[in-house]
Amino acid sequence: MARARGLGLLLALLLPMVGASRPDTVVRLNKEVLSYVAEAGKAPLQRALQVTVPHFQDWSGGVFQPTRIQILNVHVPHLQLKFIAGFGIHLLAATNFTFKIFRVPEPLHLMLPMALLADTRVSQGSIGTPVVSVSSCFSLFDKAIVLDGHNSTAPALLAPLQNHIKAVLQNKLCLRISNLVQGFNVHLGTLIGPSPIGPESQVHYSMIDTPTITNDYISLNINAVLFLLSRPIVLPVDTTPFVLPQHVGTRGAMATVGLSQDLFDSAILLLQKAGALNLDITGQLKSDYNLLNTSMLGQLIPEVGRQFPEPMPLVLKVRLGATPTVTLQTNNATLRLQPFVEVLAPASNSAFQSLFSLDVVVNLSLQLSVSKVRLRGTTSVLGNVQLTVASSNVGFIDTDHVQPLMGAVFEKPLLDHLNALLGMGVALPHVVNLQYVTPEIFVYEGYIVVSSRLLYQR
Question: Which domains does the chain have, with CATH numbers?
Fold first, then answer.
């Protein structure tokens, strides 16, 4: 707990410095999620309502006799949660308490039906998490039912006994509801925990304003900050906030998550700053299918053949200068890379000499998927790789002749490298033990939407 509070304080101080006032992610929890939470919440609620009932002072024989009361079972056959527009969530639980009254000469068994009602407010916490608080809570009791059939012994005792139980439960049950909600808030606090992207990078999510609540959903505006070596990735300021339209995604989904263009731009910028998009492609002479050598290149560039009469392996040093761009259009996501590629060959002194360099443009199709909580990507090349000679130490280079060879030795290693990076994925907003199930992804102009069921597993 101390660690969580310390992290929360750090984020509260840090996030405003990196432009946390503008959302780039919107999480919309639809009313369908309330049915799932209600069903999953029955067992915890039943356990929480197992309170201790103090002895009942039974007036018998002119003196008070303490009578022990034990709750044998709490059953919640019906639990309903509903959004209260502009406020929070309403809870209605139909509950049956079974009591054992330790009377002499034989115990008495009672069932007490009860309706438990509570209104909870959902607000923004000081460290950027949703906070739920109980604003009102009360119980409605029905008449107690004698279960063991000894009605002749019960009437004189039943009314005062039931009043005693009601008075106890009125005080204790709402306190237990409040404690249950506080435990839920601790769980909601895991929303702001760091989620690793790679060995030196993380993403931090935080809620930036009070949730929007309608009769159909609760919507959280969330700021996502990516960190590289503890430094935030900061984009140029854009005054246009991201707003998730009303009717997007799959109808009936529990969660609708909107991810703006900014989040993708931040992720790509992080990869560039980390140098993760750079790679070296090395030819191997002993390979059965090796095109990356001086002999193959010499057939296209005569000067290479003259300088290297014996086959030598080549190295392509791929370095990313210009920032990659992600474009999100309806039903279409693309990634554009503009690497600088230097072609090197071994020199006599065991060093490498530069033969020529190329400015390259690669357009890629970006396919997105979600696994558990991580958004992952894979790429494929769109069209031909575009080459322009930047410099040459081997005379004139006809790019039309070099294009097929460079495409063959460049495309597959680049795709393998990119797909390994994008396959690590970025965690979507989530709390501990929560997963996205059967997600569907929709690409719109400037943002994507993940529509999904949710699964909570301890």
Answer: 31-190 (3.15.10.10), 244-456 (3.15.20.10)
